[in-house]
Amino acid sequence: MSIFRRLRDLTVASVNDALDSMEDPVVMLNQYMRDMEVEIGQVEVAVARQVALEKKFRQQWEEANALVEKRDRQVKLALAEGEDELARRALADKKQFEARALEYEQLYLTASEAATQMREKLNELKEEFYKMRAKRFTLMARAQVARTQKQVNHAVVGIGTQTAGRGFARMEEKVIRMEAEAQMSGQWRQPSYGLENALSELEKDELDAELASIKAAMVDKKEKTDKPAPAVKADQS
């Protein structure tokens, strides 16, 4: 049972967090003001109906009192004329109108008290509405400032530092890697280059020696060719 309760609590918390992140203060404040306007309108209609009912009961109460006074005069007039039966009937009507007037009076007082309370409620709602309307502009301005500041901070911190910093770090790593590759490439090529030079120098020395040998042989041959032959002595016999 506790597992299901915890899952329910997690679900409710997740939904509440999602709703909180979706709520725009400006939009919600405007919606609250519209809700209050609708509520005030409904209370105004109810107050108007109650006031109309109050006036109706007051009018009926006043009419019943007027009939009571009228029947009282008629009772006295009938007695003065010796019309006892007529006076009795007028007196009975007077009693009925008195009871009706008392009933209308109670209805009027109840309706009047309810109308007074509803007027007070309406005034409280209107005062609260005016306060909320004044506060709404302040909250909307604060929300706009906070939103702008958040955007600026995000641009400065998020884009200016994090993104650019990561980009510079990546480029620095790439330059270091390029330098390392270049250095390694030079190290691998230097021995080969030195060997070629050494071999070339060796071959040059051998050629020079061979050329010197050939040249010496040619000079020697030429000297031998250019040397005069020895004279032949005459036979003295």
Question: How is this fold's topology laid out?
Answer:
Elements: H1 2-22, H2 25-80, H3 84-226
Helix pairs in contact: 2-3
Fill in the keyword field for this structure.
237 residues; mainly alpha; PspA_VIPP1; PspA/IM30 family protein; coiled coil
CA-atom Rg in angstroms: 62 Å
Question: Average pLDDT value?
Answer: 77
The secondary-structure element order is HHH
Oligomer: single chain
How many helices? Answer: 3
| Strand percentage | under 5%
Largest sheet: none
How far apart the termini lie comes to: 158 Å
Structural class: mainly alpha
Percent of residues in helices: over 70%
Bulk shape: rod-shaped
- Overall number of strands: 0
InterPro entries: PspA_VIPP1
Biased composition (Basic and acidic residues): 218-227
Organism: Brevibacillus invocatus
Protein name: PspA/IM30 family protein
What does this structure look like?
It is a single chain. With 237 residues, the protein is an all-alpha fold. It has a domain of 156 residues. The chain is built from 3 helices and no strands. The longest helix has 143 residues. It is rod-shaped. The model has no long low-confidence stretch (mean pLDDT 77).
Would you kindly provide a brief summary of this structure?
This protein is mostly helical and 237 residues long. The chain has a domain of 156 residues.
